[in-house]
């Protein structure tokens, strides 16, 4: 049985260093492998603007694993019978404050939107000791790019000739790419 949530055990790694003209050495180090566990809660609401039917989707992204931090997160979203309105995308922190656009990139292609957060945007695990986690990851304690939750909203506009927008919510957790997991 493999346990991936190490709460009290820190695995150790010993590297043997050998080579020509090098004194043989053993270098001990800790392995920090408490990977984040990202979760997306996705909801929608319907609204009409004139004759245009729109669905507003809300995604709340959290890191469920205590004492972990997610970084280099990319979110992929697509729709089957509507058009994603790239201009409607809003990204906020857990307190409802806008996350500046320079902290993420949005790419729209063939009905898919990719939202990629910059390398220095972090989602802290629930109930984590923030100072300990930041120190372990060499992140400045005064960084203002560490979030407990990221909230994303966007609109999907009904395509002409379609009866309605597909409101099926697929497992959005499959649409997260987290560089920590590679």
Short recap of the structure:
With 182 residues, this protein is mainly β. It is built from one helix and 13 strands. Helix content is 4%, strand content 51%.
Radius of gyration based on Cα positions: 21 Å
Total strand count, please? 13
Helix/strand-derived class?
mainly beta
The fraction of residues assigned to DSSP E strands is over 45%
| Main sheet makeup | 4 strands, antiparallel
State the helicity in percent bands. under 10%
Helix-strand sequence: EEEEEEEEEEHEEE
Question: Could you explain the architecture of this structure?
Answer:
The protein has 182 residues and is mainly beta. Helices cover 4% and strands 51% of the residues. Strand 10 (122-124), helix 1 (130-136) and strand 11 form a beta-alpha-beta unit. The longest helix is centred in the last third of the chain and has 7 residues, at 130-136. Mean pLDDT is 76; it is low at 1-9, 168-175 and 177-182.
Feature tags:
13 strands, 182 residues, mainly beta, 4% helix, four-stranded antiparallel sheet, disordered C terminus, disordered N terminus
Topology:
Elements: E1 12-19, E2 22-30, E3 38-49, E4 52-63, E5 69-71, E6 73-78, E7 82-93, E8 104-109, E9 112-117, E10 122-124, H1 130-136, E11 146-147, E12 149-158, E13 176-178
Parallel strand pairs: 10-11
Antiparallel strand pairs: 1-2, 3-4, 4-12, 5-10, 6-9, 6-13, 7-12, 8-9
């Amino acid at each position: 049985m493999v346990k991936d949530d190490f709460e009290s055990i820190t695995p150790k790694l010993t590297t043997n260093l050998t080579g020509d003209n090098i004194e043989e050495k053993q270098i001990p180090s800790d392995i920090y492998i408490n990977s984040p566990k990202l979760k997306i809660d996705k909801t929608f609401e319907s609204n009409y603007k004139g004759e245009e039917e729109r669905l507003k989707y809300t995604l709340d992204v959290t890191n469920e694993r205590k004492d972990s931090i997610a970084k280099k997160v990319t979110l992929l979203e697509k729709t089957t019978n509507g058009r994603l309105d790239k201009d409607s995308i809003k990204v906020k922190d857990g307190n409802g404050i806008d996350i500046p656009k320079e902290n993420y990139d949005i790419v729209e292609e063939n009905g898919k939107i990719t939202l990629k957060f910059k390398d220095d945007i972090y989602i802290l695990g629930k109930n984590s000791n923030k100072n300990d986690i930041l120190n372990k990851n060499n992140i400045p304690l005064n960084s203002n790019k560490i979030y407990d939750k990221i909230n994303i909203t966007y609109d999907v506009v009904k395509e002409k000739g379609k009866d309605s927008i597909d409101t099926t919510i697929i497992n959005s957790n499959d649409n997260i790419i987290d560089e920590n997991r590679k």
